[in-house]
Specification:
Oligomer: single chain
Structural class: alpha/beta
Low-confidence stretches: none
Number of domains: 2
Number of helices: 11
Shape: globular
Distance between the termini: 20 Å
CATH superfamily of the largest domain: Malonyl-Coenzyme A Acyl Carrier Protein, domain 2
Helix content: 40-55%
Number of strands: 11
Order of helices and strands: EHHHEHHEHEEHEHEEHEHEHE
CATH architecture of the largest domain: 3-Layer(aba) Sandwich
Strand content: 15-25%
């Protein structure tokens, strides 16, 4: 049986590997034309980006834009080399780059979806400060039980058997992180995210997100999209519109998605964005698959 490949797209950059620009240079691609086009589309100046001196990592929304731009460039490189996956998936806001890769949306629509989704979530959650954080070192049920004393905190993403992302009010996230460290957490980190994505707080506003998505032209997918919500395989435009909404208001399961793909003969997974956050998360999952990162200059299995 033919072994399959999947291409994954990250939501945002935690840290650049330093090889991203080298990948572009090796493929005779310049970043500036993409930055210029995105700046005109968004009416936001991204032209001053520099991966060493001005990386925008401290700006949550610009970070999402740059992650999407790099992801689209990597998509263009892969297509130019005729490297086609059997499946594509986008982690959280990485879904829009996955949709670009599978010819569901064009470059402009993906950028505007990021912008409008960010603005919508920010508006809904206005009035309180929120945060998201990674926690490594607890089993899921133990972590949920431990966090019950903080009423706003939810476990919203499962990255591995002992690796999770939580969200809630910023003060409670900080308090809970300090407590989890005292209880033996192996690693914790508060992410540079002020919007509380994937929280149950957004579910009551589902219709707003449906209206947002319906403003965009969304095509059938040329490559099957795998949902990080429940591993559902999605191809048709109506399903994809529903997935965009689900992707914002639902919990995600990176761990379950990897296991599902591995069980269905996907033996090669390529992270197609800047940084290597998904590659790092894959290290917490045991399985018969090769996980690589373009940002580590690995386009093919070696």
């Amino acid at each position: 049986m033919k072994q399959k490949e999947a291409h994954f797209f990250p939501a945002f950059v935690i840290k650049y590997t330093g090889k991203e620009i080298k990948v572009l240079e090796n493929n005779s691609i310049e970043l500036y034309p993409y930055l210029n086009k995105a700046s005109e589309i968004l009416d936001v100046d991204l032209r001053k980006f520099d991966i060493v001196n001005n990386d925008y990592l401290s700006d949550e929304l610009k970070n999402q834009y740059l992650t999407y731009i790099f992801s689209c460039i990597f998509s263009d490189i892969l297509n130019s080399k005729n490297i086609k996956p059997d499946y594509v998936a986008g982690f959280s806001m990485g879904l829009y780059a996955a949709m670009y890769h599978s010819k569901v949306v064009n470059f402009e629509s993906g950028l505007l979806l990021i912008k409008k989704a960010y603005q919508q979530v920010k508006e809904i959650l206005s009035g309180s400060e929120y945060a998201m954080a990674t926690v490594i070192g607890f089993e899921q049920e133990d972590l949920i039980h431990t966090l019950k004393k903080w009423t706003s905190i939810e476990l919203v993403i499962k990255n591995g058997a002992y690796s999770f992302i939580i969200t809630g009010e910023k003060t409670e996230i900080k308090e809970s992180i300090n407590f989890l460290i005292s209880e033996g957490a192996i690693h914790t980190s508060i992410l540079n995210v002020s919007n509380s994505y994937h929280t149950k707080l957004l579910k009551n506003h589902k219709q707003k997100f449906i209206s947002l998505v319906n403003d965009f032209a969304i095509s059938d997918s040329e490559i099957p999209i795998v949902s990080f919500v429940d591993s559902k395989i999605i191809k048709h435009s109506d399903e994809i519109k529903q997935e965009v909404v689900r992707n914002i208001i639902s919990k995600l399961d990176f761990y379950k998605t990897i296991i599902y793909l591995s069980d269905n003969n996907v033996k090669s997974i390529l992270e197609c964005g800047p940084g290597d956050s998904l590659y790092v998360s894959s290290k917490f999952i045991k399985g018969d698959f090769d996980f690589r990162s373009i940002a580590k200059a690995r386009l093919k299995s070696q």
